[in-house]
Amino acid sequence: MNSDYTTKLHAGTVFPDITATLLSGESVNLAKPKAGFDWKLVLVYRGKHCPLCTRYLNQLEQFKDALADIGVDIIAVSGDSKAQLEAHNEQLEISYDISYGLSIEQMKTLGLYISDPRSEQETDHPFAEPGLFVINTEGHIQVVDISNNPFVRPELQALVNGLAWIRNPDNNYPIRGMHK
């Protein structure tokens, strides 16, 4: 297989062991929820250069409590540098974890689409297009959404409502999309 291509992750498989760095310098495993949570939502965003990402990250903050109520922790990650995240943080109004330093190899492992910047003014490195993963208690991918552009992302209210429904044991809802 040509190394220029990514391999898409499949629903129901174990989320890969990938670490990123918080602004504090702490290294975090993307799939591991904080204490008190048993599921994890991993949001991959393009980077500081993307105004749609900034808006989406800020919108996600509005759903943090609803996700916490159903046991879902949140982390956002990009391939930006620490300096880029520090600058971006001034535009963000979020209280969930955000990390930086996702490598191209990690982007490929996650099955993300990767783009080159259109100019040096946009950014100085290849970056991942949006991806969203929800990892369940067993570390398996319960929900996956991968886009090849910034214009297509899950509608957050529908996502949160769906996760609440999935998490309700009375619904006994399995992981969907298991045929490969």
Automatic annotation (TrEMBL):
Gene3D superfamilies membership: Glutaredoxin
InterPro entries given in the database record: AhpC/TSA, Thioredoxin-like_sf, Thioredoxin_domain
A Pfam family that the UniProt record links to this protein: AhpC-TSA
GO MF, any single term: antioxidant activity
Coiled-coil parts of chain: none
Domain of life: Bacteria
Domain Thioredoxin: 9-165
Name the record gives this protein: Alkyl hydroperoxide reductase
